[in-house]
Amino acid sequence: MKVGGHPYRTIWLKAGDERVVQVIDQQRLPHAFEVRDLRTVDDMCHAIRDMTVRGAGLIGASAGFGLYLASLQARDTGFDDFVAQAGAALQATRPTAANLSWAVARMHLAMAAGRTPEDKRGLARREALAIADDDALHCQRIGEHGVALITDLAQRKRGAPVNILTHCNAGWLAFVDVGTATAPIYAAHDAGVAVHVWVDETRPRNQGASLTAWELAQHGVPHTLIADNTGGHLMQHGLVDMVITGADRVTRQGDVANKIGTYLKALAARDNGVPFYVALPSSTFDFTLRDGVAHIPIEERGAEEVRWISGKTAHGQIESVQICPDTTPARNWGFDVTPARLVTQLICERGLCEASEAGILSLFPEQA
């Protein structure tokens, strides 16, 4: 994607010093665009935990590069133990996203083929880059498969804009490039199809307001920011043609863990006959789980994210303010689970399928 006319991914090796990983600091968006240097696995763990980098695919790619940094830090003596500990530390940063453990396992498998620490460092670099490239390619293919859903609606609407509601940020900032929920939207927009996106704020961290709105503006896609609780009203009045969200973990039966509030959008969509799609790469599936409500681990984050909010003042200063009484406690669950029965279809890099075990296995028969 382009920022100010310049192409960027969300994570890359620094030009001229490939011992440094560079990322877009998503905590600074939308009011400032800054790149951060990460030099150690501890740097990467901190960046994942504090959401400098966030989103399922980018978390996975970050874990890959984190283990590459660990391989550079590790001494030859005790190399494997150091890398194993680094992998465990990375996995502990965010428990819900399946891509994190998937990427760590893929990196360990790739490095195991090396005979010496130096071999393993080279393999770690190559595999981290491959994970990032695969993520971008899979998102591109999700766009290619999903765009037909939008163009079909556009034809039925005789060219009137297709109104799409999305929740949180499953755009290019949540992946290495292109994104999942936004990939079909970008593909449709680039093909000249009239689209308009309703952007949920997505409290408490406001990833919709701060990230999705920002990147849609960068790409020139028409959009409107709405309060989180507005979606149901819009659906009741025929102002939403489809909902597309991303996912952080999807079970083999099609239950979807995504940013808190997704379940409520799915319920409103079902009640109003609005199709509800979930876009994800294969790395987001957890084929070891069936019942998502019972078994997907749900991250609970710090209460300060609910009690405080940051933004730009009328004088142009970025400040944080408390929105509740001093003594008010808060709870902050980061995700909820949408049961498969509420999902119209899944959009993956291999195509579209029903949100069911049979549907998913039709695209991924090797997981049977």
Topology summary:
Elements: E1 2-3, E2 6-7, E3 11-13, E4 21-24, E5 35-38, H1 41-49, H2 56-73, H3 79-91, H4 98-111, H5 117-156, E6 162-166, H6 183-190, E7 195-200, H7 207-219, E8 223-226, H8 231-236, E9 242-245, E10 249-251, E11 256-259, H9 262-271, E12 276-279, E13 285-286, H10 292-295, H11 304-307, E14 308-312, E15 318-322, E16 335-338, E17 345-348, E18 351-353, H12 357-363
Parallel strand pairs: 6-7, 6-9, 7-8, 9-12, 10-13, 12-17
Antiparallel strand pairs: 1-2, 3-4, 4-5, 10-11, 11-16, 14-15, 17-18
Would you give an account of this structure?
- The structure is a single chain.
- This protein is of the alpha/beta class and 368 residues long.
- It has two domains: 2-134, Four Helix Bundle (Hemerythrin (Met), subunit A); 149-367, Translation initiation factor eif-2b, domain 2 (Rossmann fold), CATH 3.40.50.
- It is 40% helix and 18% strand.
- The chain has twelve helices and 18 strands.
- It has helices spanning 41-49, 56-73, 79-91, 98-111, 117-156, 183-190, 207-219, 231-236, 262-271, 292-295, 304-307, 357-363, and strands at residues 2-3, 6-7, 11-13, 21-24, 35-38, 162-166, 195-200, 223-226, 242-245, 249-251, 256-259, 276-279, 285-286, 308-312, 318-322, 335-338, 345-348, 351-353.
- The strands form five sheets. Strands 8-7-6-9-12-17-18 form a seven-stranded mixed sheet, sandwiched between helices.
- Helix 1 (41-49) runs antiparallel to helix 2, helix 2 (56-73) runs antiparallel to helix 5 (117-156) and helix 4 (98-111) runs antiparallel to helix 5.
- It is globular and about 65 Å long.
- The two termini are 36 Å apart.
- The mean pLDDT is 96.
